[in-house]
Amino acid sequence: MRTPLLAGNWKMYKTPADTQAFFDGFLPLVAGTTGRDAAICPPYIDLAVALAAAKGSNVGIGAQNLATGKEGAMTGEISGYMLQTIGVKYVIIGHSERRQFFGENEAGVLSKTIAALEYGLIPIVCVGELLAERESGSTEAVLGAQFDGGIAPLTPEQFAKIVIAYEPVWAIGTGKVASPEQAADAHTFIRGKVAAKFGAAAAEATRILYGGSVKPDNVAGLMAKPDIDGALVGGASLDPKSFAAIVNF
Ligand code: PGA
Fold first, then answer.
1. Are the C-beta atoms of residues 106 and 127 closer than 8 Å to each other?
2. How many CA atoms lie within 13 A of 37 on its CB side?
3. Residues 144-174 pLDDT 10s
């Protein structure tokens, strides 16, 4: 039985003061929620406030990126080791915006995933196709290549600890959510890849989240699909009421 994970990705939004205000509003709305995991992934500068606010609650805190290695002369970077020392639990890896604007590729996704696991963080590894790729019928080829390059080289022990997020790039921040059927087809394909590489038990245990314009009014339809195990939520995670409605779907 897979516990759903509802994770908010704040991207480059919110100051520490905004973060405190968010948690003041959000935590009471999810205090009684059970049977699912909730997480917020704020910008680095908000992590300390988020961790302090969420302490003792049922909400885990994640980062949006990490650098490989423990420490070193890497101007502007933050390592998994550093994230672990302050109590961060999750880290998003290979988000399409990282791929698009910062040149991240499968090799980088793989090495960051291994680095996250080395320091006990739960990687949320993102895959997803562009609109042109979907329209040309290459969605499965793209997802397959992302899986083969970024995820399949993990050992079974490493793989057992990751979460996968399917995020069709055309649905991110566009308001164009994938239909539950489109999302479920992709999830089933990815779970098939997991089964082929890591076996049926691993495929059964792996959480695959959907991301891309998830809102309070479409989350239930997505979550009704057996292969969809949660959501990675951008815009709708910025508002406490809206994200609480998603967590409490
Ligand atoms: P969105 O972003 O919910 O704003 O579409 C999702 C994501 O990028 O993870």
1. no
2. 20
3. 999 999 999 999 999 999 999 999 999 998 8
- The set of catalytic residues is 95, 167
Ligand 1 pocket, residues with Cβ under 6 angstroms: 9, 167, 172-173, 211-214, 232-236
Average pLDDT over the chain reads 97
DSSP H or E run through 128 = none
- Structural class in CATH, domain 5-247: alpha beta
Closest atom, ligand 1, to C-alpha of 235: 4
Buried b or exposed e, range 50-66, using 16+ CB within 10 angstroms: bbebbeeeebbbbbbbb
Write the Ramachandran bin of 120: left for phi over 0, alpha for psi from -120 to 50, otherwise beta: left
Question: Burial, 160: exposed, middle or buried (Cβ in 10 Å; 0-12, 13-18, 19+)?
Answer: middle
pTM for the whole thing?
Answer: 0.97
Q: Give per-residue pLDDT as tens, 29-67.
A: 999 999 999 999 999 999 999 999 999 999 999 999 999
- Kindly report the three-state secondary structure assignment for every residue of 15-77: CHHHHHHHHHHHHHHHCCCCCCEEEEECCHHHHHHHHHHHCCCCEEEEECCCECCCCCCCCCC
Q: How far is the CA of 10 from the centre of ligand 1 (A)?
A: 9
What distance in Å separates the CA atoms of residue 18 and residue 23, rounded to the nearest whole number?
Answer: 9
Atom of ligand 1 nearest to the CA of 214: 3
Distance CA 90, CA 41 (A): 8
The pLDDT of residue 176 is above 90: no
